[in-house]
Amino acid sequence: MALVGFLPVAIGRYVEVNRGRSIDTTLLLAAFFFSISGIAMFAVPGSPLASGVGTAGLALSVLFGGSFVRHELRLASSHDRWRTAVTDPTVVVGVGTWILLLVTAFPQTVATGGSVTNVYVHFVGYALGFMTAYVAHEWELFEDRVEKRVDTGQLRSS
Fold this sequence. Notes:
This protein has seven helices and two strands, in the order αααααααββ. By secondary structure, it is mostly helical. It has one domain (2-155).
């Protein structure tokens, strides 16, 4: 599950390299909180806590997503670059794989044959994988962000 949590950050880094400049990472946070909302609403047995977590996840997703959109609208050349990134087959397959893995890893909790899928342990692995990759990405632990590597319009290899 940690690898599933890492996948949105990997897709974000791929988009950064192809766009030639860094993305506003609130997009990554919006995706994470949207996935939390989906997990709480569909995979966890219904309870007031699950509904609260799902609602809070959706609210944070909208908040971070709105921040990302406002940031991108301020950039004049952003629209064409995003159209190219969104239609990139690698991005489409990556996002589709991420969604498919989430749906597969977090089925609706049903007890069958004396066993229950432990959604909570899956969630801890997913959240730790995302948080670790996100912090490493933000703190530039592995390499500089794209905007710092741009030299006369071309990316230098690290």
